[in-house]
Amino acid sequence: MTQIIFLPDRAGRGGPPLPAAPEAPRPGAVSLSEAWAVRASDAGVAGFVLASLSRTGAVLWVQDRTSAAEAGIPYPNALHRPIIRVRSRNAADALQAMEMGLSCSVLSAVVGEIWGEAPRVDFTATKRLALRAERSGVSCWILRRGASPGLSAARDRWAVESMPSVPSLWDDRAPGPPRWRADLFRTRGGRPGTWIATHDRTTDRLHLDAADGDGPAPRPAERAG
């Protein structure tokens, strides 16, 4: 049975009100992206996805049962936007919930966490998600742990690994902004490469800096507004 749970917004005012429609995306800027955890136990991949999302509008966050049990659930007070969380029994139910969410233009993004090798997450399923995202203007991410990449229609496919945080400006014993090593191993909008990603808390923006001489960073597909 699929459970739908409304998480409070940052101010803790209970379930999120219907947000204003997100800004209109640029043509081709919104589609399906994937983020693969290099290590299944690395929770940082979820932070990378969140940092890549538009700052406006509600996010539908879908988790299959194993993802919720092994990786935990999103912590609402640390987020800058309302989250509508759906917990599904398996990958098939998660995909169905994601498709339904992508039909709702009032959302700014749909994120789906699916754990392990899941045959239902094939090229056909990802193609359906990509087409729905592009048609509705709602960006979509699939977050995968404990599996190997197979065929996919995702526009961008990232392998993400947490790195030590940036040193704090005020206390060298405290953690600073988070960092990730982000390997864009397949893309339709540029060329593959590896970047060091950081999150600026002040602007709530993801910054990508070249690593290993990979040149200019790509513009994340979800940064459409």
Distance between the termini: 35 Å
Under CATH, the topology can be stated as Rossmann fold
* Mean pLDDT score: 80
Task: Report the structural category.
Answer: alpha/beta
**Spatial order of strands in the largest sheet:** 1-4-3-5-6-2-7-8-9-10
Radius of gyration of CA atoms, rounded to a whole number: 16 Å
Walk me through this protein's architecture.
The chain has 225 residues and is of the alpha/beta class. The chain has a single domain, classed as P-loop containing nucleotide triphosphate hydrolases (Rossmann fold). The chain has 4 helices and 10 strands; from the N terminus they run E-E-H-E-H-E-H-E-H-E-E-E-E-E. A 10-stranded mixed β-sheet has the order 1-4-3-5-6-2-7-8-9-10, sandwiched between helices. The longest helix has 14 residues. It is globular, with a radius of gyration of 16 Å. The protein starts with a strand and ends in a 15-residue tail after the last strand. The N terminus and C terminus are likely disordered.
